[in-house]
Amino acid sequence: MTDGPPRCLAPLRRLLQRLLQRMLPRHCLLCGQPSGEAELCAPCRSDLPRAALSCRGCAAPLPAAPDANPAAAPGGSPYTSTGAPPDTPPHDLVCGRCLHRPLPWDQAIAALLYGFPADRLVCRFKFNRDLAAGVVLARELLDAIRRSGQDLPHAIVPVPLHRTRHFSRTFNQAELLALHLGRELDIPVHSRLLARSRRTVAQSGLDAAARRRNLRGAFRLAAPRERLPPGCHLALVDDVLTTGVTLAECSRTLKRAGAARISVWVAARAPAP
Predict the structure, then answer these.
(1) What is the pLDDT of residues 34-46, one digit of tens each?
(2) 245: left (phi over 0), alpha (psi -120 to 50) or beta
């Protein structure tokens, strides 16, 4: 099942976008300066915070070399993998915290670090319905996925909102990111595979323990008896990864339904509170 607009409309949509771009001058979403046909000017795009190396498990930034400051790595240890850091491919590096306590998903990709000015883009997209900011985040995530060297999934699943929050916000930011990625990568998007089983309070402002209590049992399959195909590899998409509690609950739900592998794709990686 693929949700979203028909693929046959994509060329027409791109043509209309190009016409609008030529007719209406654009200004950078961050600094307000002319930006040509792009949402961001070149200096602001280059200022977006990206990690040179990140953990395969949690997408947290890693030090640039094995002898870098250990305190810079999550969990207080320099990056490592299967016992030979110098020979480990960059996309397989794992932080000490993930080695000590593996996450319920298999790999993670974050486009940006949640700091200035990426945090402004996320907030504009999520809370101000700024779809242009969402396009920037989706493109950054698409670039990160293509650079990662990781296998592409069979399908993409956005993290769902509860129906009351979806109604008040009028859109699901994770779903819009997922639809952009699915269109560009030619991967089906299953927006209605997961559902929220109950309403929860907003995660922002909660510590890790409170977030776990808040989301325990909060997700289910929309069709409770559905089983996923054997060997199924799914990508979970969300806007921000902080403690990982939301994505962990979704991953466990999908693995109980038969998913063999779960990738996590997020627009930004925030430090855990």
Answers:
(1) 988 889 999 999 9
(2) alpha
